[in-house]
Amino acid sequence: MILRRALLLLFCSGGIAPTLAAQPVSLAEKVSQELISEAVPTAFEVAPFRESDYQVRWTGAAPSGVHMELVPGSLTWVRVGRLLVLPRARVRLSVQNAELVQLQVGGSVQQIPLPGGEAPVSLFSGIHELTVLRQKKVTRHPFEVVFSPPPDSAAARLSSRVFVDASCSPHRLEVIQKSSLPTQQWVFLGCRLVHSRSGESSVPQLEVHVGWAGVQPPVVVGGIPQDSSSGSTHAAIALLSAEHPRATFSDSSGTEFEIRAQLPRQLKTAFLGVGLGPYSYLIQVPGKATVQTVAPITTLYGSYFLAEGSRMVFFDAFPVHGDWYNDFGLYFHSESTRALDERLSVNLLLGFHLISFQSPLGTQHRLGAPQGFEMIYRDAFGRRTNLSVGGFFYPPIAGKAYYNTWLRVGSSKLFGELNYLSWREVAGDGNQALSRSVGLSVGAPLLFW
Fold first, then answer.
1. Which residue, 112, 343, 368, 369, is the most exposed by fewest CB within 10 angstroms?
2. 10 Å Cβ neighbour count for 311?
């Protein structure tokens, strides 16, 4: 009865909305503004690119008395807009006989100390400009830092230069290269799931953020020509849906690739799964014989989507044994923070649980409020294989105690779990009942709706 009421509470219906077609949206301005900002978080290395893989290329004639080079060891990968990971570095400038030198990168103007100094520069966002004041005359010199790895470099020897962020893993994003990428090109993709709600259901759409370096303009995305003013780089968003699950990217050099995603026609807001495995099982109840054996323990899992980063979750654990107990919990699951290049989520679990067990006085029910946390590391062992660790805790107080900890590896399709569960409660006669179990279980989804 308790489980039935919880399921009715958790699994109510969602909303409906029209699905949008794949629509490219320019990201050039956003990328150029954020990439050199010191406030933007750095990221894990995407590829073994080095400063020697890039060249400073003047759009016109090289200005006289100017020496510009990338500082060795300064290349850093930066997460832009949470979904694109792109490189930046520092450039060292030396300008002879100048009265003022300014460097404009990504819409930001930096004054360079004379006779020279260093400044951050984007290795992705297209055309930059050097402004020099000499003898009261101002000259402007546009330039670009282009990806041009030597043939013997690690960057040139990569088997693939298409990089997909962990944010795309749950959506099974595929990249189909219809032609090989030239050596001077590479692509990074990041994903965000969005949905519209109206009426009785929800329709998901996937924003795919694409950064494409080394392109030959014009760039065509989903059949729509794009603004090519950013030089040899292009950044855009393609919006995919179940009705429009793919978008094609091409440039004038003949390079072409397609992205595809697997998306349901309606957002599945509710989930029910089951786990089962052998546990070392101990239970002591006053007035009954102590049981210490190996027994299968079944766990039901469920969740209901509330908003991005928050949901209601429940679990129900019970041994398949004559001397049984039932542990039911209902919790609000909220993402507190992300770290380690957006891969690690720290989640809080706030709610209550109910322990039920048999005693000579009848079935006993004990309400408690152990609180918990969970940390999830995405793509820990490959695409769609996550690692999570967490637990609920209630220290010994007035004869009550509760610990439920787990280490889980797997995906939304299948997972394995090492679980420790211990509880202590006051029985009806004033004595204490307790149980401890530790074991392995395998879990899989039963229903989505």
1. 369
2. 21
Give the integer Cα–Cα distance in Å for 412 and 117: 51
Question: Omega into 218 within 30° of 0, i.e. cis?
Answer: yes
Q: Where are the domains of the chain?
A: 33-147, 159-260, 268-448
Sort 265 into a burial class: Cβ within 10 Å, 0-12 / 13-18 / 19+.
exposed
> How much of the chain, in percent, has pLDDT values that exceed 70?
91
Residue 2 has pLDDT above 70, yes or no: no
Sign of CA dihedral 222, 228, 231, 234: negative
Q: In CATH, which of 2.40.128.100, 3.40.50.2300, 3.40.50.720, 2.120.10.30 is domain 268-448?
A: 2.40.128.100
How long, in residues, is the chain? Answer: 449
How far is the C-alpha of 160 from the C-alpha of 186, rounded, in Å? 8
Query: In the predicted model, is pLDDT for residue 188 greater than 90?
Result: yes
* Whether the predicted model's global pTM rises above the 0.85 cut: no
The residue ranking higher by pLDDT, 12 or 68, is: 68
Bridge partner residues of 43 (DSSP): none
Alpha-carbon dihedral angle through residues 381, 268, 221, 161, given to the nearest 10 degrees: 0
Summarize pLDDT for 79-107 with one digit per residue, the tens: 988 899 999 999 999 998 888 999 988 77
CA-only gyration radius of the chain, Å: 29
- So what's the architecture of 33-147 in CATH? Sandwich (2.60)
The per-residue pLDDT for range 115-135, each reduced to its tens digit, is: 888 888 989 877 889 999 988
Query: Can you give the pLDDT at residue 343?
Result: 94
Q: Which residue is associated with the tokens 């969005």?
A: 194
d(CA 116, CA 101): 9
